[in-house]
Structure formats: C-alpha cells, structure tokens
Write a structure and sequence with these properties.
Length: about 300
C-alpha cells in the first residue's frame, strides 16, 4: 500500500489550499482527495476539543489502514501527500510531530507562513463569514481565546496562538532532519507562485518545469448579505428550489456581487498583535534562517494583503 512521503503541515490561512490544488496538477504528484484528514492530530481517537459539526468532522481519519486508503490510487507517483494545515497549529505540535516521525520518518514537510497578525485577522474573518465563528468582532474573539482554550474549544479559534510559528514549528525541527523541512513565506507565494512551485518541485524530486495554474482558493471575504451567502453556499429546502430555478452561472455572479473585501485591521491592533509576536518572530527567523524584519514593522507594509 502506498504511503505519503510529504505533508503540507500549514499554516491555516496562509495559502495552503491554493498550494494543494496547484501541486495536484503535477503528473508525478498524488494528493489525497480528502485534503485535510487530520490523521496525525487524532492519535487514533476523537480529538480532545469541541468538534464543530459534520462539515468539519467528516474529514477526520483515525485509523492507519483507513488513512493509507487515501493514497491507494497513487499508482507509483513519485510524490504522495496530503495537506492538513492544523498540523502547524498550537494544538500539541510536539505530539503531532512525533506521530508523523513514528509513521513516516522520511516524510518531507512543507510549511507556508504569513505575517502572524495578518493571518489571525484573516482566520477570524474567514470563519466568521462561514458562520463558524460566533463572536461579532475580532477584538472580542481575541479576548475570548484563553477561555476557549481552557474549555477545549476547536483550535481553529486560536486566532492569536496559531500565529506563534517559531514555537509551533520548533518541535518539527527538533524531530526531523532539517533538510526534510521547507518553509515558504506567503508574500513570496503571492508574488511569485511559479518560482515557489519550482522550488517545491525540486524539494519533492519531481520535474520542476511542469507548468501548472495557480488559482486563489478559500479567499477571505465579507458579505453584503450573510443570509444570501448561506442561501447560495448551503441551501436549505427553499434554497434547493431556488438552485433548480437559477442557472449556476447566475448564482456564481450573484455570489461574487455579494462579496466585499475585508476592511483593514485597525492600526493600533495591528501594532499590539505584532509586538506580541516579536519574540516568536525572532525565534522563527533564527530557526529557518530567513530575515523576517519586514514582519515587525509598525504598519502593514510587511504583510501580503491578499486575504
């Protein structure tokens, strides 16, 4: 049975969905149809946090044989992988890294990282737009984070804590040879997706000259009408009737009209968050050998603005 030999480990809201779909176009790369099986955080049982519902929990895989079945059709592909961005969250990264080592010790690990204040703001708004995040403001969600962690709420609500990449990535560097880990920056991926993909193809030992299309995926929006978005995205009985009447092309145009760009994060909050991340950014900078001083600026010039 084929086994995965690479994992996209995160981070959430850093472009992993677009990367997953781009890599899947390469003829010598196989990715599981279940993009996020979460296998290495489960430890063979239900995670110890609140499960948010079927839309998010049906992807979870607990059994090793079931996990391997995700790759049964790899058909001799050179690079075989999956992309569970939660692996680089603050939810017990030491245990996750150890489980990966125990099952696939030679696995290559790929991480995409984004200026952490920007990532936190995008994550909050992403889950808010999808009716997953119930709190009405980013500030309220940040204030509630310690209580949510204490009550074992979903790690997706660790908007601030999931941005401590230096802390969350260190267990992987402690567990795996450093040559098995590649870290890329969100702003580089946005600016030069073709160059980033060539680097990843070389890392995975596949032909780096294969052209692939890169499409923005899971972009964070706000909506003029949340009710209209629900109707288009997750129709109930009435919405299903509407879907039968309205052509798909019209529904797509309507959804695009309903989308609005995010307002910028308030400058004072940006500075507060970034200063809170300072020590961890410096730790990460040393860990990966990259200059991250642009992430520490007191304005958003160090952040990629695509949501």
């Amino acid at each position: 049975m084929p086994q995965p030999n690479f994992l996209i480990i995160g981070a959430q809201k850093c472009g992993t969905d677009a990367l997953y779909h781009a890599l899947g176009q390469h003829p010598d790369i196989f990715l599981s149809a279940n993009k996020e099986p979460f296998f290495f955080i489960t430890g063979g049982r239900l995670p110890g946090y609140r499960l948010p519902g079927p839309r998010y929990t049906n992807r979870l895989v607990y059994d090793w044989d079931t996990y391997l079945q995700l790759f049964a059709e790899a058909n001799g592909k050179r690079a075989i992988g999956e992309a569970s961005a939660i692996y680089l969250s603050s939810y017990f990264p030491e245990q996750t890294a150890a489980r990966i080592r125990d099952r696939i010790p030679d696995a290559k690990l790929i991480a995409l990282l984004r200026q952490p204040a920007e990532r936190a703001y995008s994550a909050y708004n992403f889950y808010r737009a999808r009716d997953f995040e119930p709190l009405a403001s980013f500030e309220e969600a940040l204030a509630a984070e310690p209580a949510r962690i204490e009550s074992n709420d979903t790690p997706d609500f660790r908007h601030r804590l999931n941005g401590f990449y230096g802390t969350n990535l260190k267990p992987y560097y402690d567990t795996f040879p450093h040559e098995q880990i590649r870290v890329y920056l969100f702003e580089e991926w946005n600016a030069d997706p073709a160059g980033t993909l060539r680097s990843i193809f070389r890392f995975l030992n596949v032909d780096e000259n294969v052209p692939v299309d890169v499409e923005r995926r899971n972009v964070t929006h706000r909506y003029r009408s949340q009710r209209l978005h629900r109707l288009l995205a997750r129709p109930g009985r009435f919405g299903q009737r509407l879907h039968r009447v309205l052509p798909a092309s019209f529904r797509l145009q309507l959804d695009r009209w309903n989308q609005m760009p995010l307002p910028p994060i308030p400058p004072a909050l940006w500075r507060e968050l970034t200063e809170g991340y300072r020590e961890d950014i410096l730790k990460l900078q040393s860990l990966i050998g990259r200059d991250l001083s642009h992430w520490l600026k007191n304005d958003r010039s160090g952040a990629a603005r695509r949501s």
